[in-house]
Write a structure and sequence with these properties.
Elements lengths: L1 E3 L5 H13 L3 E3 H6 L6 E3 L3 E6 L7 H9 L2 E3 L2 E8 L6 H12 L2 E9 L13 H23 L11 H17 L6 E3 L8 H5 L5 E4 L2 E4 L8 H5 L5 E3 L14
Parallel strand pairs: 1-2, 1-4, 3-5, 4-6, 6-7
Antiparallel strand pairs: 8-11, 9-10
Helix pairs in contact: 1-5
Length: 248
């Protein structure tokens, strides 16, 4: 089973490719989290988690969902993490998660995809994003071959910087950066409610036809990047930046 969590489409793009090549079913973790659904996930094939990288680890909300959910009968677990630069020492924490869940850890694969975190960085323009996605195709094919042969992903020794990013920077990031208070909708907002629909944590409500953000945000960038009229901004960080959705 291919299980994915996605904000702006990178993970879904990879998951769909894997699903087609492996002839395996897709499960959207966003939908499960949004519904607070932790019912048992049954798969007779390996579990393939396709996830974004949040501060050099998998998203906390996904880790929490995995911990609360039962998986059977197959508990072989592959992790495919897409990122704008690197996944740091995410493997250490995935191994710990697998030990907690009694999964058989089959490794983690890093796949570079277009940056979407416009709260801090710049998303690429469409031509550059397409180039990055094309460059990712061999890595996706490699995932297919490894999983088909029930092998393991090649281990990449972490550097000292990797260890620091995943161990120290990650909790600092969540404590000081992952907040929704800077999200605002400007006068272009048409009150369509798409931001509310795409939020995996039910953190957005419409009041007088305008979105209002609560305190339960994971910074997936779905609301700001999927707004059809680009009416959502993140403080002074996002104005003028291109929005990113995959596929282009």
């Amino acid at each position: 089973m291919i299980l994915y969590f996605t904000g702006t489409g990178n993970s879904f793009y990879i998951a769909k490719k894997l699903s087609q090549a492996l002839q395996d079913e897709l499960l959207c973790i966003n939908d499960r989290i949004k519904k607070n659904d932790v019912t048992r996930v049954e798969s007779h094939k390996p579990l393939v988690f396709v996830l974004p990288t949040y501060a050099w680890r998998i998203p906390k909300v996904v880790e929490e969902w995995i911990n609360r959910t039962e998986f059977s009968p197959n508990t072989d677990a592959y992790f495919v993490m897409n990122c704008g630069s690197d996944i740091g020492n995410a493997e250490k924490y995935l191994i710990r998660l697998c030990q907690t869940k009694t999964f058989s850890f089959k490794g983690v694969k890093e796949i570079i995809m277009p940056e979407n975190y416009i709260a801090l960085y710049n998303a690429p323009e469409a031509p550059e994003a397409k180039r990055i996605i094309q460059h990712a195709e061999p890595a996706i094919e490699d995932c297919v071959n490894v999983i088909l042969h029930n092998s393991i992903f090649e281990k990449r020794p972490p550097s000292a910087a990797d260890r620091i990013k995943s161990s120290i920077t990650n909790p600092v990031f969540y404590s000081f950066v992952v907040k929704a208070d800077k999200f605002k909708a400007d006068d272009k907002c048409i009150g369509c409610g798409k931001c509310k629909v795409v939020c995996p944590l039910n953190n957005i409500e419409l009041k007088e036809n305008k979105p209002v953000w609560g305190n339960n945000c994971t910074h997936c960038m779905a609301c700001i990047c999927k707004c059809p009229v680009e009416a959502i901004e993140y403080g002074k960080n996002s104005p003028g930046k291109p929005r990113y959705q995959c596929p282009l």
